[in-house]
Amino acid sequence: YRCIEASTLLGSFAGIADVANLHHYTDGSRPTYAHRQVTIGVATSGTNIRNTDLAALVSAIQANTPGGRMWVTETGSRCYDPGFSGPNASDVDQTTSAKYIIRLIFEFYNMGVEKTFHFELADAIDVGGQEYGLIQNRTGAVMIPRPSYYSMQRTIALFDDPGVITATPLPYALTGNLSDVHHKMFRKVDGTYLLA
């Protein structure tokens, strides 16, 4: 994967950066896959590299950043809107997009990424085919929340928990085929546990 190679060739960012940055879009793949359509250092489009482990990419970048600090300042899934746009190979339906954005946030959290920002709140009306927004913006006057908007809203409300939390471990076990299962336990101020 070219980004991992580039990160290794560049070496340490110490002295020139205090936080690494990544823009990651799923482009029709699972959120844990890292891929890019343009090969680094090549002016023309390269091969579409899929099924590369996103954790390996994040780890390679963090290894060269002081303290391993990293932010993902753009992430999301381009979705199509039935009756308005047709799907292409890099689009997902609205329901899948709603699941992927929350999964991306938790995946990056588990990888030690300090901050993750979804791109974008509302579609840009002057850029055709760029439908990443939590809100459909067809004309600038008609804005319609997508399922991903409500998914994000519910997740924020669920984790909105001001106060001091006393860390108390909760023993639990997951069973079955866990090869692709990533999870994290959270504790709220009132003592409620959330398993994501």
Task: Supply database-style keywords.
alpha/beta, three-stranded parallel beta sheet, about 200 residues
Task: Describe this entry's structure for a reader.
α3 packs parallel to α4 (147-159). This protein has 4 helices and 9 strands; from the N terminus they run αβββαβαβββαββ. The chain has helices at 2-10, 54-63, 94-110, 147-159; strands at 20-25, 33-34, 52-53, 70-76, 115-118, 135-137, 143-145, 185-187, 193-195. Residues 36-51 have low confidence and may be disordered. The chain has a 3-stranded parallel beta sheet with strand order 1-4-5. The protein has 196 residues and is of the alpha/beta class. The chain is globular.
